[in-house]
Specification:
The chain has one domain (27-92). The protein is an all-alpha fold and 93 residues long. The protein is built from three helices and no strands. Helices cover 73% and strands 0% of the residues. Helix 2 (28-55) runs antiparallel to helix 3 (61-92). It is elongated and about 55 Å long.
């Protein structure tokens, strides 16, 4: 996450880093693909951790799956939003 913040913050040349474009910034599409890949892997790790942590709790199985399912819902929401951003970048170039 920290690497992603720095990649986005310092991808454009100074003195006007807020002006986005291929002549002043690097390949924004590649940066977004890299960040999306890291986010997907991180989300999968979070869901896997939730699954293993819920395996040992003493609650009903349906409640365990509800908790894991709620963590899994994050993938659908976040990845949908990232796909929209990547599609916008691809269309603009």
């Amino acid at each position: 996450m920290v690497a992603g913040i720095f990649a986005l913050a310092f991808q454009c040349d100074m003195p006007r880093p807020w002006v986005l474009g291929p002549e002043s910034c690097g390949d924004q599409y590649a940066v977004q693909i890299g960040l999306a890949t890291v986010n997907i892997v991180t989300d999968l790790v979070i869901i896997t951790l939730a699954y293993f942590m819920m395996r040992t709790t003493q609650v009903q199985t349906s409640k365990k799956w509800t908790v894991v399912g709620l963590f899994g819902l994050r993938i659908a929401c976040v990845q949908r939003q990232q796909q929209g951003q990547i599609r916008l970048l691809a269309d603009s170039s």
